Fold this sequence. Notes:
The structure holds 2 protein chains of 2 kinds. By secondary structure, chain A is an alpha/beta fold. Chain A has one domain: Rossmann fold (3-Layer(aba) Sandwich), CATH 3.40.50. Chain A is built from 9 helices and 8 strands. Chain A has a 7-stranded parallel beta sheet with strand order 4-3-5-2-6-7-8, sandwiched between helices. The longest helix of chain A has 19 residues, at 13-31. The radius of gyration of chain A is 18 Å and the shape is globular. In chain B, the strands form 2 sheets. In chain B, strands 2-1-6 form a 3-stranded mixed beta sheet, with helices on one face. Chain B has a 3-stranded antiparallel beta sheet with strand order 4-3-5, with no helix packed on it. In chain B, β1, α2 (41-52) and β2 (61-67) form a beta-alpha-beta unit. The relative contact order of chain B is 0.26. The interface between A and B is medium-sized, with 26 and 26 residues. The structure holds guanosine-5'-diphosphate, magnesium ion (MG) and zinc ion. Zinc ion (ZN) is lined by residues 73, 75-76, 78, 89, 91-92, 94 of chain B.
Amino acid sequence: MEKFRILEIKESVFEDNNVQADLLRAELKEQKTFLLNVMSSPGAGKTTTLKKTVNALKDQLNIGVMEADIDSDVDAATMAETGVRVIQLHTGGMCHLDADMTRQGLEGMGMENLDLVILENVGNLVCPAEFDTGAAKNAMILSVPEGDDKPLKYPLMFSICDVLLINKIDVLPYFNFDMEACIERVKKLSPNIKIIPICAQTGEGMEEWYEWLHTETKKWNEK
Amino acid sequence: MHELGVLIHVVEQVSEVAAENQVESIAKLVLQVGELCSMIPKYMEKVYPAAIEGTILEGSELEIERIVAQGKCRQCGHVFGLIEAKGACPSCSDRQFDILQGREFIIKEIVCQ
Lengths: 223, 113
Ligand SMILES: Nc1nc2c(ncn2[C@@H]2O[C@H](COP(=O)(O)OP(=O)(O)O)[C@@H](O)[C@H]2O)c(=O)[nH]1
Ligand SMILES: [Mg+2]
Ligand SMILES: [Zn+2]
């Protein structure tokens, strides 16, 4: 007769990743590299926003971009047009990046002399919220066509973000998106969050965002 | 599909523990999943065979224990089941509460040799 035993593990699944993420964050702080993790639903405008952002800041900061995608290279090709260091990370079907994959990406790209690394996370509002990547700050992009009730449906995502960009404000007249109600819902989940309405296509409202990112990067890197 | 990615993590974590403890085979994996955690047991069961393929867990059974979501009303202090009460305190109907439990996602134990 085979004898089975019970082996108690009692480990929180997210805890393991949290430890790796804290470690990575500390190393990045030491190296003076600010890692920004950008999350949104697919199509909210991450690539469009980030490309403009890189172009606006690349003369002042050394920037690297990591594009995470399930298995395509489209975003990395678009981003490469800016001339900064870009790496495409394939998550191989995974719907989020964890701290280990982020570290591999950073190592693959080479982190020397980078002031700012931007991570375009996999388009999804559920799992990226549960996996700390080790980023200094988390940003989220919500686009107007997705609706003002998204904070009610994905509370965790909104509660972990430091900054929220509300994108595609050019289409506000065609959607019944209640900006005030949306902001109020978000503030309830995250009282200190910075909210900036933008139009990534035209650049409207983006100055305030560049300013925020530039200031936060400097703050992180000055020690 | 979020469950597969997360289960792959779980399998890695369990495999490490198994190796440290000279485990030869695993008959069952027991997870504790809070009602407020985004992992849905029905989907976890569906993708489990794919997550364990080719690992020490291959062929094992998955058991999921649910942890009830509990909140404590900020108005009157009443402790209640959040899902059942749909987020409103059954005692004073206030909607502001602190979550006491229900977010957990824990690898509880394995039954092994
Ligand atoms: N109307 C409008 N469309 C936008 C805006 N920003 C991005 N888009 C469009 O939204 C689509 C998805 O954008 P993309 O940046 O690829 O989103 P991602 O999947 O989050 O990276 C593209 O067709 C963009 O041209 C905006 O401010 N206004
Ligand atoms: Mg994109
Ligand atoms: Zn009450």
